[in-house]
Amino acid sequence: MMTRRLAAALALIAAAGAAPAGVPDAVEDHVLPGMDRFAEASAALSETALADCRAAALRPAYHAAFDAWLGVGHLRFGPFEEDGRALAIAFWPDTRGMVARSTDALIADADGAVDDPQAFAEVSVAARGLFALERLLFEPGMADYVENDYRCALARAISVDLARMADELAQDWRADHAPAMIEADNATYRAPREAQQALYTALTTGLAFNADQRLGQPLGSFDRPRPARAEARYAERSLRNVKLSLVALRDLARALADTSIPQTEAAFETALDATTALDAVFAGVEDPQERLRIEILQQRITAISGPVANEIGAPLGISAGFNATDGD
Amino acid sequence: MTRIFTALPALLAFAAPAVAQDRAEVVATYADIAAAGYEDSLLKARALQDATRALIETPSAEALEAAKAAWLAARVPYQQTEVFRFGNPIVDDWEGRVNAWPLDEGLIDYVDGDTPSAENQLAGLNVIANPRFTLSGEEIDATEITPALIEQTLHEADAVEANVATGYHAIEFLLWGQDLNGTAPGAGARPWTDYATGEDCTGGNCDRRADYLAAATELLVSDLDWMAQQWTEAGAARETLMADPEAAVAVMLTGMGSLSYGEQAGERMKLGVMLNDPEEEHDCFSDNTHNSHYYDGLGMRNVYHGEYLRTDGRLVSGPSLADLLAAADADVAAELSADIDTTMIELGRIKTAAEAGFSYDMMLARGNAEGEALIMGAVDALVDQTRSIERAVAALGLDQIGFAGSDSLDSPDAVFQ
Q1: CA distance B314 to B225
Q2: Has residue B4 been placed in a domain?
Q3: Which of B174, B234, B307, B343 is least enclosed, having the fewest CB within 10 Å?
Q4: Which positions fall inside the Imelysin-like domain (chain B) (predicted)?
């Protein structure tokens, strides 16, 4: 399914003979299908919630939407940056307990924003998206709510809001951002290398996010491990998120590369091998033996960036640009 | 297409690297600005120390206001040095002692109600009220509040970054107190009697609060003194940069790009709007956030144009990054210059509105469209500026040196590869 604008852009590129290497493949084979899957899964979650907003009913659709998010969550530029969508969809890490504080505040006030999608879109990002919903659906003492409980209405509002954002993302990508990247002669992407660099930065930043945050947060230090900081641990998705993210990043690497990338393939394989037989929520960070296995996974993920630079960055003549996690 | 095609010959003509001498001069200007900025920060911190001593010796409403005024003045030069943090590991490793934020202030003194952060067990410790306590299973004797206690025991205790025991923001809390107005008008309103002696003392333990303020201010002065030394003629920070001017130019741009995008536009500004949380204000006790953001922006402009106006009115200037870039690619240089000016206009708008009474925490309120537009205007300008910085990196042929955010700067090799 290609829009007319996209087709026109491609035709233009073909005529000019200037298609940025790797970008059309990455956009058409990786970004756009991933966005569609996330939009579809979020729409299904929203429909489920409109029919029955109780935790047990929502959990399967929640997992499907989160799985789909991991296919695109590393693409933190362009449409993801607008309106703070990346934060509103997945507010994590949350070292200050903002998700709990913000959802508790809505519940305590029985805030009327849950009845109005437009008003709910203005609510703090910590009370929206996948992590606010995780709290309602999985946290002990939270998930036992009944049909007419405020929490049920909140779960429904979060699901509907998520579906709206996912749909807008998919549309923005298809209508505007994908053609702009492929054309690479516009205000956003002035030259092919800028489009390449945006995707390449997403790849390297995504790898670093898995190593430094998804694993680094629960690992903490040897003396002070932090199992409670594992991502989505109530939903028991911590390890699953790393695996799915690595698979998605490998997919992006393959699409972005011009040639075969044997070192990169091997590095991903080695890292994915290290995910087998780990516990689902990295509770093992407190056990010296188990901790070592989690550290090995972290090291192997970090080790992917070398081959990526050699086999993808260097041939394209690019290195990573600035990314949203440059702050502290 | 036309734009690129017209730019291309220019690029080819000037692609030969500017002579090494030029780069060394540009880097020297950068180091001169850093030296002056940290020296000004030190002088203003000493003035703050004088004012806090006066408050402690003779507590009064006037003495508290004088100390607050000294703190506000001290922020002006310091915020302009934040651009040196990213890219220079020596600054980044040190910075947490001076400007750490956000903080769980209940570690230090009394706070309203009980809002300990979810996972920080020390968020309600209140050292000022508790001379003895247990920390990570260890008995701590805090009967004497000293710089050593604050720096070595309390700061980042239990490996939690929100346990900020020292630096500008700890002092800010000790002077202003918590801002209990949420997203409504008003800053923290600590009574001067929190430092009064005898029966006039409010908030309890006024003597210990005074000890804490004295110790934290002493630490700030000594930390800034150390950093100012690193940028003198024989200082380590300057020597590292001068040893490899090519890499140093990349450091200059890395500092600007990382501060513009991940730190200021993202962490400090956009996140606050998206969370609607007044504690996401950078200077949340004093309501001075508009100035913090403004002077961060000005620091980047200083580095680009090789100009810094000292607190005594003298101008430090020399061969600049702008000159170097203009020789390599005049279009990119002009564009980055225009982007930085746009950022300053946007940050100036926030400052203008805040100084007229529309404070930064009010801008963060849920559904406050005007506030959101003001902040997001600056965020968008900072993001645009970042794209131009990336283009500058490419134009100067530095793109194989690699970028690094603060997290990866623990290994200097990542930058100086």
Answers
A1: 21
A2: no
A3: B234
A4: 34-388
Boundary-marking domain end, from A183, A216, A243: A183
First CA to last CA distance, chain B: 35
Pairing of strands B132-135, B138-141: antiparallel
Q: Do A328 and B276 touch (CB under 8 A)?
A: no
Q: Give the span between the Cα atoms of A65 and A88, in whole angstroms.
A: 14
- Provide the CATH number for the domain around residue A210: 1.20.120
| pLDDT for residue B137 | 84
Can you tell me which residue has the tokens 């900072």? B382
Q: Which chain B residues are closer than 8 Å to A326 by Cβ?
A: 86, 257-258, 261-263, 266, 403, 405-406
CB contact under 8 A, B403 and A321: yes
Residue B404 domain-assigned (yes or no): yes
Residue A45 contacts residue A53 (beta carbons within 8 Å): no
- Residue-wise pLDDT for A134-176, tens only, equals 999 999 999 999 999 999 999 999 999 999 999 999 999 999 9
CB B271 within 8 A of CB A87: yes
CB A92 within 8 A of CB A131: yes
Same domain assignment for residues A95 and A208:
no
If asked whether residues A234 and A170 sit together in one domain, one would say: no
SS3 for B316-344 is: EECCCHHHHHHHHCHHHHHHHHHHHHHHH
End of a domain among A183, A211, A233?
A: A183
* Residue B78's pLDDT band (cuts 50, 70, 90): very high
What count of other Cβ atoms lies within 10 Å of the Cβ of residue A63? 18
| Site from B2, B391, B403, B413 to mutate, A interface, most A CB atoms within 10 angstroms | B403
Q: Give the residue numbers spanning the domain of B410.
A: 18-414
When comparing pLDDT for B412 and B210, which is higher? B210
Half-sphere exposure of B241 (CA within 13 A, CB side): 30
Answer yes or no: do A257 and A220 share one domain. yes
Is pTM beyond 0.90? Reply is no
For chain B, positions 339-368, list CB contacts with chain A under 8 A: 366-367
Q: Give pLDDT tens digits for B241-254.
A: 999 999 999 999 99
**pLDDT tens profile B273-293:** 898 877 777 888 999 999 999
Domain that holds residue A39: 20-183
The total of structural domains in chain A comes to: 2
Query: Are residue A31 and residue A164 in the same domain, yes or no?
Result: yes
Using beta carbons and an 8 Å cutoff, which residues of A are at the interface with B? 16, 81, 84, 87-88, 95-98, 100-102, 119, 122-126, 185, 190-191, 193-194, 197, 208, 212, 220-221, 223-224, 226, 228-229, 318-328
Let me know whether A143 and A204 are in one domain: no
Q: Which of B162, B262, B366 sits opposite A322 (nearest CB)?
A: B262
Please check whether residue B407 touches A, CB under 8 A: yes
A322 part of a folded domain: no
- Asked if residues A142 and A151 have their Cβ atoms less than 8 Å apart, the reply is yes
CB A246 within 8 A of CB A297: no
- The verdict on a CB contact (< 8 Å) between A318 and B273 is no
Spell out the alpha helix ranges (H) of chain A. 4-16, 23-25, 32-51, 55-70, 85-89, 98-109, 117-120, 129-138, 150-172, 178-183, 192-208, 216-219, 238-256, 262-273, 288-302, 305-308, 314-316
Residue with tokens 């009327």: A112
Are residue A60 and residue A125 in the same domain, yes or no? yes
CA B137 from centroid of its chain's CA atoms:
33
Inter-chain residue contact B403 with A224, CB threshold 8 Å: no
Same domain, A158 and A233: no
Q: What is the CATH number of the domain that holds B91?
A: 1.20.1420.20
Two tokens at B263? 């730190």
Q: How many domains does chain B have?
A: 1
CATH number of the domain at A154, please: 1.20.1420.20
